[in-house]
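Quarterly update from the structural biology core.
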Amino acid sequence: MMGLVVAMDVNVLIEEGFEKHIEAGWLQKVAERTLAAEGTDANVEVGIVITGQERLHKLNRDYLGEDKPTDVLAFSAREGEEPFVMPPDGMLHLGEVIISYPQAVIQADEHHHPVSKEITILLVHGILHLLGYDHDTPRLEQRMFSRAAEILV
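Predicted structure, tokenized:
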């Protein structure tokens, strides 16, 4: 009996000016490891965008009503969908995780760890949001941050 083959399509866009600081292949591996740790058993697609402070500030203001910079945003492609509805192409389009590289640098400095670790933390956090985790109550926050910590080990 053959095992289930799961396809993970991770698309990475690193905006001009940031490509010398981060490698797309590494981001893909972090995303794939996170999806695998969550037991993703469907063919999934996720987008990752590395961008600047201004773009994330604008997205945060325009879509979430928060007129301030932020470190990571996750835009689900499945909002409002019934669970387990498989799209016609057989690929579950999760959405996009958008990370501010400059904010990651600031936070890495504040936490005294490498920028790569901060980007990893932000990416795992964003993907967990796409998979349905949230942190708008203390119980949900504890669940989400505990899961992120397990994945980051």
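Residues 115-130 form the longest helix (16 residues).
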